[in-house]
Design goal:
alpha/beta, 7-stranded parallel β-sheet
Length: about 250
């Protein structure tokens, strides 16, 4: 049996999730990461980790589809048993997600349900179903957003779900404390990825607004986030629990 820790990262084939996988595998952690539909991107991430201390494996998962979670964990258990000779893992990072930018007045129930299923209901039940497989002394990291602290028009449903996830995380820290499982939130600020159709990466007007409202004077990059997640999955973060860590360069202070 490998003495390396094992992490499960949802949405690990691109953006923030990709950088989390790279940082964790550099830190001697074996990672199983999920992808929704882009298997090609997932394979690219696996190739990028080839010379890292930890290895990476990709599994398909739609985090909106709560009915598929039992089947996913059955498959996940078989994979880690085969590859790492264990039926348990140490770190769950709930990262997968999409964004909808619409004024509150234009939001539909379908839009709302999409955000709820991905960012709150899916996170809630994927975490619940992980508990029998999660090692005592492990950790759960939920990815929120700076938008749960400050309000920018057009993100009411997305940000509301992230606010729910932050409350949920505090309950996890309290209820799982007896198992020495830590639960924390990482809340990125505006990051230049393809998230939300790449608006923070490609829209120069929005980028200028972000830079002018950020103390460090730039838009965030994926590489700003993964190292923080990897730190929270290390022994050095063993006394951090029930906390929200915003990683935004000092946005809207």
């Amino acid at each position: 049996m490998s003495n390396k820790k094992i992490a499960l990262v949802t949405g690990g084939n691109r953006g923030l999730g990709r950088d989390m996988v790279l940082n964790l595998t550099k830190n001697n952690v074996n990672v199983v990461f999920t992808f929704h539909s882009s298997d090609d991107k997932a394979q690219e991430v696996i190739l990028e980790t080839a010379d890292h201390q930890g290895s990476a494996i990709a599994l398909q998962l739609d985090t909106r589809d709560i009915a598929s979670f039992d089947r996913f964990y059955d498959n996940f258990s078989k994979v880690i048993q085969k590859e790492f000779d264990t039926g348990h893992f140490d770190f769950l990072i709930n990262n997968a997600g999409t964004g909808i930018y619409k004024p509150f007045a234009d939001m539909t129930e379908t839009d709302f349900d999409e955000m709820m299923n991905i960012h709150l209901k899916g996170v809630y039940f994927l975490t619940q179903k992980a508990l029998p497989l999660l090692n005592d002394g492990g950790a759960i990291i939920n990815i929120s957003s700076g938008l749960a602290r400050f309000s920018i028009p057009g993100s009411s449903a997305y940000a509301s779900m992230k606010g729910g996830v932050e409350v949920f995380t505090r309950y996890l820290a309290k209820e799982l404390g007896g198992r020495k499982i830590r639960a924390n939130v990482v809340a990125p600020g505006a990051i230049a990825t393809d998230f939300g159709n790449g608006v923070n990466r490609d829209d120069e007007k929005k980028r200028n607004i972000i830079m002018s409202n950020t103390a460090l004077g730039r838009v965030g990059e994926s590489e700003d986030i993964g190292g923080v997640v990897a730190f929270l999955c290390s022994d050095k973060a063993g006394w951090i629990n029930g906390q929200r860590i915003e990683v935004s360069g000092g946005m809207i202070l």
